[in-house]
Every structure is written in structure tokens, then in C-alpha cells.
Amino acid sequence: MSVDEKTVRRVAHLARIKVADSELPRLAGELNVILNFVEQLNEVNVDNVMPLTSVVEVDMRQRADVVTDGGYAKAVTQSAAASEDDFFMVPKVVE
Amino acid sequence: MSLTALTISQARSMLQAREISAVELTEAYISAIEKAKILNAYVAETPDQARAMAKVSDAKLAKGEGGALEGIPLGIKDLFATKGVHTQACSHILDGFKPCYESTVTQNLWDAGAVMLGKLNMDEFAMGSSNETSYYGGVTNPWRRHNSNKSLVPGGSSGGSATAVGAHICAAATATDTGGSIRQPAAFTGTVGIKPTYGRVSRWGTVAFASSLDQAGPITRDVRDAAIMLKAMASVDLKDTTSIDLPIPDYEKAIGKSIKGLRIGIPKEYRADGLAPEINALWERGAAWLKEQGAEIVEISLPHTKYALPAYYIVAPAEASSNLARYDGVRYGLRVPGDDLIDTYEKTRAAGFGPEVQRRVMIGTYVLSAGYYDAYYVKAQKVRTLIKRDFDEAWSKVDVVLTPATPSAAFAPGEITDPVQMYLNDIFTVTVNMAGLPGIAVPAGLSSEGLPLGLQLIGKPFDEETLFQTAAVIEQAAGLFTAKNWWA
Predict the structure, then answer these.
(1) B386 in contact with A, Cβ within 8 Å
(2) Fewer Cβ atoms within 10 A, N terminus or C terminus of chain B?
(3) Which residues in chain B are closer than 8 Å to A92, comparing Cβ atoms?
(4) Predicted structure pTM score
(5) Per-residue pLDDT reduced to its tens digit, B273-313
């Protein structure tokens, strides 16, 4: 499979990365090199093979569904580019 | 002998005997770092914090107390969250980020008495094999070719860690390995690097790249120091459900144990086309050393080896595209204002991520997008099952597997520009991450150009002890390799 410029534009938008139209040919070329490289996997027969979801066989640890941590909104929001009253500030999203 | 020439185990004895103080040792490193700026190994230095920590260590040592790493000065890869200190995964997008929490690995080290010298350079978000993708610029390898002044890369992504250890500007360093990022730079700098079994070390507070592959480990000057560091770094952590609740052995005890009767696997697929004669000779020499000490050499087959790297370049970018979605200009780091929220995201991420990170996020987004998920991601995860099965079968015949660590010695910055060519650096290391196994890189000789070359040992899950035991035998035969100091 290979990607064209239109696909690259769509993928860039899905990935939320601004890409100038002038960069699309270069990116399509680079992505196609990688996609061609991974095409080798088509040689492998994976019939009746289960995907690996964990490298060690263990049951996922569980704990009671209770709050064990938190309550530091100030510490968390202090890393933000813009915050006010312990809230993250973003451009207006609702008209 | 200069204080910075001491290994952890040597410094430990002298600190405990009060022949040296932690403050003296720390001052020696602070001054060595000052003289090694040209290597660009550190992206943030914390001398005041180091001095304060060393003082506390001296007070404990004076009372005959202290942890396993009391007073030992360490460098920390920029991927580990350190409270109130620069933590940016060497990316522009995390500009100014100083976390309000500490990673489990670094907390374990501070609890053991270690001293923090600062944060180490790395490829941006650990994506790279040469440290050239760092927002803070490349790192210079302390090693140079014979009769050459040309700079070489230290490998990556833990390039700052490897250079800092190789250049004696920290006693040891933390590092992380998603496809070879501990073992390849260790091999390029004549240092020891171990990627433990997936789940041995907590990932909590370590900036995530590919969550099902990432694992932290140490880079050190010798095998014993790697054993000391891993024991201190490893823990079971309620904050990381993938950390495994198994006892942590005293790895140092494995060093010096006889390998008589140990079965060493030589996978024939690693001999693949184009293996450099020099690397092949190193590999054969390593096998001969082990045989001389009574080990049995067994040829094995790992038939899916060649598919590990292509599968990796689906799984790792897919997980990265998901993990890196959090860098949106809202919660931390850089923000480039846009016309609306989406535009802000897109402009921030375009400015904040370097080209290699953008490429991988886009590949990951593509393989996870509607209609392609089964063809790429699920397929790659199935191939991973086959890779792991190869090893499961091998373990009925052998106890440990011996391979080269890298296909070549260190190269020069700018020498490799094709991304896929760069990815091939991980050809011998990446299968280990895909199968979740432990792997150690140990220096085994010098190339014809005078550069360090390493061998890799791969172990059964949670059998790091056999890796230390066997690596120590290689180290004994090969000797230690120290770069000549040309920078200070």
C-alpha cells in the first residue's frame, strides 16, 4: 500500500500536525519508504495466530475502585501555557 | 587515581570505609562535567541539588548507614520525570516543563542514596539511533577513530547516558530501551547496558514512547555496576499495572559464578546477508571465550527474526501516535496560538515535534486509521506472537542467546540520512523488545578503526541473573574499554 498527497493531508490532520502543501510530496515519499519496508510482513502466515497483547502471562492486577490520589489541581495546571483558577485555558470552542 | 575513574563498586567501598566523602566525589564529577561541555551530554545540570544530596549521604555514611547507592553521583536520561527539574524528553514541545512528581525509577535511586548530577541528552522522545533528533543538538561520542579528530555519534536514543558514562562524567546513568536504545549506545561507547525483562522496572513517570515495548535500565562502566544499578531501579509498582510482582534477586551474586555446562544459543538467522566480517569475528570470539569457560555452544533457529524490525515499525509508531496525543499545547510545554482550538493543536505540534517524531506519529496515525488497523497493527502484533514463540522454543535447547549488539561501530553525524537505514541499527536488538525479553550489551573488543564493539546476550524472562553471570565472563576475557580523554 502506498499513500498519496491527499492521504498524507488527511493523516496529518488526524494527527493534528499542521503541514504546508509544499511539504506533502516530501512527506508522502518518506512515509512510502517506511510503508514499503513494513510490507515484508505480507510474507508471514499469521492464520490462527493470536495477537500478542502481553509479553508475560499474568492477570491484570486489580484494585478497589476508590480515589487513592489527587487533589492537586494547582500543581497540575501550573505546567500549562495558560491557566486560571486551576483551569486550563484554551481558545473559545463554543460560539 | 582520579575520583571520577572509580566504578560504583569501587566508590562504594571507599565511601563506606570513609576513605573518600560523597561531597568530594560529587565535586569531582561537577568539575569533570564543566570540562566536558563539548560532548553535549547534559541538557540540564543540577550541581546545587547534587551537593545537597551528597551532604545528606555523608551524614548517613558517617553513622554507618545508607543505601546501596549512598553517595554515588548519577546522570538521569531526560525521559524520567524529576520533580522540579527540567524533564522534556529533549523535545521542543515540552519547553519549560518541570514536573510536580518524581518517576518511580528515580525515586528508587534517591531512596538508595544516589546523587543527581543532572539530566542527560537523548533523541527526541527516544526516537532515534544516533542522538541526532534531540532538540538540544547531538551528543559527541568520547571515542574517535584511530588518527582522526572527527566526531562520532554515541548511538541513541540514550546517547547522552552512554557518552556520560563512557566519558566518566557520571558514575552511571539511567536509560530506556524501546528497540535498542540502551544496548546500541552502550555498544558504541564501550559501556555496559541492560534492558531488563518487560515489567521488571516500573514505567511510571517515564515519558511514554511505545508502552508495550518501553523498559528502563542502566548504562554503566562494567557488568557489576549494571547489576548494582538494576537492583536499585527495579520494583513492583502499584502505579504501573505492567510491573510484575516477582522478587528482585541480588544480581551481583551472579557475577563470578561458573558458566560450566551453560548452553549458549547462536541464532543462525543473525548471520544474515551482509554481516560485516569484523562483527562476525567478534561474535565467534565471544562464543569461543564462553566455550573455554565450559559453556556449550548450540546453533539455534529464530526463523521470524527478519520480521521483527518491520513489525516494530508498525507497533512502535502506532503506540507513539497514541501516547504523544497528549502534547496538545494545552496542559504543558509549548503553545503556538492558532485561529481556534484545532488550529492551536496543529500549529503547536508542527512547531514542537521534530521531523522524525512527526514522521512516526503520522505513520502510527495511518496504521491505526479506519480500514488499516487489521492489516497493519493487528498483523504486526500477530507477528510478535511468532517472534516470541521462536524464543519459547529456543529455551528448551539453550539457557542464553549470544548475538552481536550492533551491525557496525559508531558512525559520524550526518552519515546516515535515510530513515530506514537508520532503523537497521536496531536489527539485532529489536527482537528482544518485541518478545519482552531481557538483553545486555557488553563491550567485547575494538574495531580495526579503534572503536568499541559489543556483544549482546538475550535471556529468558526474568532471568537477568544469567545475563550478568555470562556477561561477566565476556568482560573478564575482553577487558574494559576506556576512551582516551581528548576533551578536557
Answers:
(1) yes
(2) N
(3) 340
(4) 0.97
(5) 788 999 999 999 999 999 999 999 999 999 999 999 999 99
